[in-house]
Amino acid sequence: MKVHISLNVKDIDRSVGFYGKMLGSDPVKFIKGNKRSQSDREEDSNSQRELAKTGYAKFDISNPPLNLVLNEVDFSTGGSLSHLGLQVESTKDVLKFKQQWEEKGLITVDEMDVNCCYAKQDKTWVRDPDGNEWEAFVVLQDLESADETNSCDCSDKVSEYVGAVKEEVGASCCDSSEVQIAKTSPGHETCCQSN
């Protein structure tokens, strides 16, 4: 097992320089972005111009076992933490985490065979009481082209699902301060989990 940390960074080149020095290693994958302002991105959606591509870097360190991802993101509020994870060897291991988490009362959000962060992955998500999201995931296939993959915005997977569940079942289901984790698996009857 390997710990995974995904950080939002404002300048991919600067951050790659820092983490390269800190970890004593070059990234195993480094995609330079073509930064554009929000108004340029909105204009892009109405034209045929090339879409904005965000910068991305992945450090894969063996000792200590660490998968550190840097996503170049325009952000002015919130912190730089995107999400945390546990990288495992197989889909079977992902499903073991899912089962263990559910047996302990945690509810999961699943993404199987998804293209994310320049890789095809199977993953399951949980959220801690402070809103930090964790994924257990396996990389099934490395994808080199940005055309093959979706955005690397992996934040708020559980939060988005909690919001959808609350809208569907109504606010009387549970107080949002008590909602910790939600699940997409069919047949699950609980709309929210509290301490």
Structure description:
There is one protein chain. Strand 6 (109-116) and strand 7 form a beta hairpin. This protein has a single domain (2-152), classed as Roll (2,3-Dihydroxybiphenyl 1,2-Dioxygenase, domain 1), CATH 3.10.180. The protein has an eight-stranded mixed beta sheet with strand order 2-3-4-1-5-8-7-6, with helices on both faces. The radius of gyration is 18 Å and the shape is globular. The model is unreliable at 169-195 (pLDDT under 50). The protein is built from four helices and eight strands. The two termini are 28 Å apart. It has 195 residues and is of the alpha+beta class.
Briefly summarize what is shown.
With 195 residues, this protein is an alpha+beta fold. The chain is 23% helix and 30% strand.
SS field, number of helical segments = 4
CATH class: Alpha Beta
SSE topology string: EHEHEEEHEEEH
The CATH topology: 2,3-Dihydroxybiphenyl 1,2-Dioxygenase, domain 1
Which percent range describes the beta-strand content?
A: 25-35%
Instruction: Output the structural class.
Output: alpha+beta
Spell out the blueprint of helices and strands.
Layout: E1 2-9, H1 12-23, E2 29-31, H2 38-44, E3 56-61, E4 66-72, E5 81-87, H3 91-103, E6 109-116, E7 119-127, E8 133-142, H4 157-169
Parallel strand pairs: 1-4, 5-8
Antiparallel strand pairs: 1-5, 2-3, 3-4, 6-7, 7-8
Which descriptors would you attach to this protein?
globular; 2,3-Dihydroxybiphenyl 1,2-Dioxygenase, domain 1; alpha+beta; 30% strand; eight-stranded mixed β-sheet; 23% helix; 195 residues; disordered C terminus
